[in-house]
């Protein structure tokens, strides 16, 4: 086999008298007349599964008395919005969603076990006043392609010699693959095919792929967990891979070669080729 990602800007529009003042929405930071919520989405960190879980940070203003969230298939939300309208759907989230415990400050929550395209909606409430925030998340689903053995080569002192694992393809992206359980049960290493980049050698035709960084359960001394990635991610350049002959590729029979770097937060642990070999039929 071949070797080879407010400055404070407030326009104070206030009419003051000796006996009264008027609260204008948005005129004084933190003192809006209406409830408001802003949602930020982040990659879920371990022990969560980033393929199917997402972490949200919710920022509430001081008019929010209660808030609720609901995660459902995006198609189901679209159907409800079509029949109920936005006001009706907000009422639906309040009645059927999960109440968020603390709205006095920013709230973090992780929504789990989403497979396919999901819509996540948060409704903030103050009496009969409501505000809505929403995001979408596509949870990855996988299908088995072939079982086989992964042969380690860079740091066998850390990883061992080999591991039985299963090659899978993403059901929503037929260029995205992973090796399930490659670093042990419950682990995976993803790689993204590059269909426009094809090579050929004595073993046949192969398609290049990229390997984004992934943390393994292996540790190295006092440096914590070991991570792996392809050489291009290490060097910060996709072009650097082919220019210097450090490709990773998959043959038509699913044999793969991985030009991979091992590293910890303190730096490089080495790089070389590793291989996936499918089980014989």
What's the tally of helices?
4
- How many DSSP E strands? 17
Binned, the helix content reads 10-25%
In terms of structural class, how would the helical and strand content be classed? mainly beta
What would you note in describing this structure?
- The chain has 281 residues and is mainly beta.
- It has four helices and 17 strands.
- The chain has helices spanning 74-96, 156-159, 231-235, 238-244; strands spanning 37-43, 54-60, 66-73, 98-99, 107-111, 116-126, 129-139, 142-151, 162-170, 173-180, 188-201, 204-210, 214-219, 225-230, 249-251, 256-264, 267-278.
- The strands form three sheets. It has an eight-stranded antiparallel β-barrel with strand order 8-9-10-11-12-15-16-17. A four-stranded antiparallel beta sheet has the order 4-3-6-7. Strands 1-2-5 form a three-stranded antiparallel beta sheet, with no helix packed on it.
- A hairpin with a 5-residue loop joins β13 (214-219) and β14 (225-230).
- The longest helix has 23 residues, at 74-96.
- The chain is elongated and about 70 Å long.
- The relative contact order is 0.13.
Helix and strand topology:
Layout: E1 37-43, E2 54-60, E3 66-73, H1 74-96, E4 98-99, E5 107-111, E6 116-126, E7 129-139, E8 142-151, H2 156-159, E9 162-170, E10 173-180, E11 188-201, E12 204-210, E13 214-219, E14 225-230, H3 231-235, H4 238-244, E15 249-251, E16 256-264, E17 267-278
Antiparallel strand pairs: 1-2, 2-5, 3-4, 3-6, 6-7, 8-9, 8-17, 9-10, 10-11, 11-12, 12-15, 13-14, 14-16, 15-16, 16-17
